[in-house]
Design goal:
Radius of gyration of chain A: 18 Å
Structural class of chain A: mainly beta
Helix content of chain A: 10-25%
Radius of gyration of chain B: 20 Å
CATH class of chain A: Mainly Beta
Shape of chain A: globular
Mean pLDDT of chain B: 96
CATH architecture of chain A: Beta Barrel
Structural class of chain B: alpha/beta
Low-confidence stretches of chain B: none
CATH architecture of the domain at 6-120 and 217-234 in chain B: 3-Layer(aba) Sandwich
Number of helices of chain A: 2
Distance between the termini of chain A: 38 Å
Strand content of chain B: 15-25%
Number of helices of chain B: 14
Number of strands of chain A: 8
Shape of chain B: globular
Largest sheet of chain B: 9 strands, mixed
Oligomer: heterodimer
Strand order of the largest sheet of chain A: 6-5-4-7-8
Helix content of chain B: 25-40%
Largest interface: A-B, 42 and 42 residues
Chain lengths: ~150, ~400
Amino acid sequence: MDIKEKLKQQFNLSDEDFVKPLPVPTKWSQPFWDGAKQHKLLLKRCEECGRIDHPPYLYCTSCLSDNHVWIEASGRATLYAFAINEYGVPFPFMPDLPYVLALVDLEEGPRMITNVIDCDHKKLANGMKIEVVFEDVSEHITLPKWRPVKQ
Amino acid sequence: MSKVEYAVIGTGEVPCGIYPKRSEFEIAYTVARQAIQDAGINKNEIGAVLGAVHIMGSEYNTELFFGRLPEAIGAKGCKITAATVSGGGSSFSIRKTAEGILNSGETDTVLVIHAQRFSQFSANEQIKYFAAAGSDIEWDLPYGMTYNALSAMMTQGYMAYTGTTIEQVASVCVSHRKWANLQPNAMFYKKSLTLEQVLNSRTVSYPLTAFMCNVLADGGSAYIMTTAEKARQVCERPVYILGEASDYSHRSITNAVFSDFSKMHSFFEPVAKRAFERAGLAPEDMDIFELYGSYPVITLMLMDSIGIVEHGKSGVLFERSETAPGGKYPCTTNGEALSFGHTGTGVGFSVFVEGVRQLQGKAGRAQVPGAKFLIDDCGGGAFMDIHFTVMGNEIPN
């Protein structure tokens, strides 16, 4: 019996309890998720002052301007710090245990919380080079994730 | 040095732990009466009753907003009642509200109450709530982010960039537990904890083990705050608010003003310095460090920022038990979230109330002999802000 079936019996759960939360885009974040759908990592940059806001907000958090452009990130980053969840996570993520959460620093400046996948957990190291990879998780949503750059 | 205007004259507290049959109302009414009796004032002197919002929702909140507390407590002289909340920073924001009311001149006596009963929610509801509260629903939660993972990433980064060892991180838990073992109201009053137990307990979110993560619990506390002038008249040993300072950083840790986890002191330290300056005191004047870290790594980062140890080296103090009972730097003398119990916004309240007890000489077996001055902190969100308070049972010259 797989882990999900075991949990369902143990805690009297239904399939609904295993539905993962997905991003619900806002008016100002929709372009990011549209970009992700096309496997592009987009960042909101202010046309007035050059500030990149991630997460994006209604207007520039540096100069309050509405004037902005969405730029495509290089998809290269470094791993700043990480954690490996092994226990005590919401039910939808239990079948994925253990999995890596990471703070990654994009070349363009912003830091993101994400998963590092396709990696040997023992080889994770602060400062290692990683690259974006896109995971289509539903009809509308694609999540950018990261993996070590192959040597 | 700022003028000393406010003081705490009495406190109340119920045992912290899992008490499903003890309602939020019962907690609130109990701690309120204790605080009134401890302060030795007439309840009708209370001109304002402030309550902290119950985390995860509750009928208690509606009743709080609709003025139940003054009526139930019999505070016949109450003119103002309000609820205040800023997550883990609530003990500070509610005190600021109390100070504002005292400053308005409408009353010279304010009762502040916190009550929380997490045990009315299932473990899954609690896990889901704190996963969403500690991280961003749109940007973090879809990746399986949790509050423990947030602290785990900070611990991993702090260790990697400062050279702090996992044994030093674990020593914080042991130090806290030793204090809790002297506190009858602590959730883990009767349970000892060794370094080996902390290190060998189940990994929750690497590098954090189960004993490095706090446990949600039911509890509450209260205190009576007055003007410094009234405090001197009615209280034998008031605790004065000598200096306070605050700063805000972020909602998401990705936008923290401290992007380098080995330099979190760059965020905390200037705030602590301002609080010391306003109090007219220095770090070496502190007898106790009542720090609310919630996770061991934050306690280390806070201790790095107070001005008593080299940046990134506070792990050594905990490892050498200098922060434990009998040590030179008594740190968080009630055991804090990790060992007293995590009562939502209440951790900051319980640490503050313990600080008051210490300075009033009412801390029982945990009493630090001759304690005159201490520094207290709290903060909320996903480590979004910091509030330091320097307190004392005398006003420095």
